[in-house]
Amino acid sequence: MIAFFGAGTVVMASCSRIVFAMARDGRFPAHRLMRRVDPRTHTPIPATILIFVMGVALMVALPGDALLQLITASTIIPALVYGATIVLYLAVRRRLDRNKGAFDLGRFELPVAICALVWTVASLVMLVSPSEALVPSLIVVGLIVAGGLFFAGLLLFNRQALESEPGMPVSSGTDGG
Fold first, then answer.
1. For the segment 21-53, what is each residue's pLDDT rounded down to a tens digit?
2. Which string of DSSP letters, residue by residue, matches 13-32?
């Protein structure tokens, strides 16, 4: 029970932090509300309440098996993110700056990156190959499609939010600066 409570607290904190960060950068629906921080506690109260309400709604609305499907889907998503990060790294690694004295794998860089990609692909195959993984896989595909549509919406209707670096304030004026 303590482990579940701890895991739930971590998930709620990280999700509310993601909502706040995206809202701060103007990349979340209702971003003006979700980026607010309580002056006394310095915490993103609206973002935290949103995540809490969504979590409670999911627990109440979904039967036990559906919640299990969501939990299974949540194991597929990190593997996809890790795999995408490795592929992106492999694509741009030659163009990255090398800082003197920084951690460097030297000649083992490419073999380690390839092994990490093979491991991630093997993990994904194991996660999605059982017949019980069909619904979680469809959930993940649905989330990717929804994320793609949201990104397309930003490209079409709020491109300015995508043209600023994360963490930098988004200019609200139309004067180009």
1. 999 988 888 989 999 999 999 999 999 999 999
2. HHHHHHHHHHHHTT-STTHH
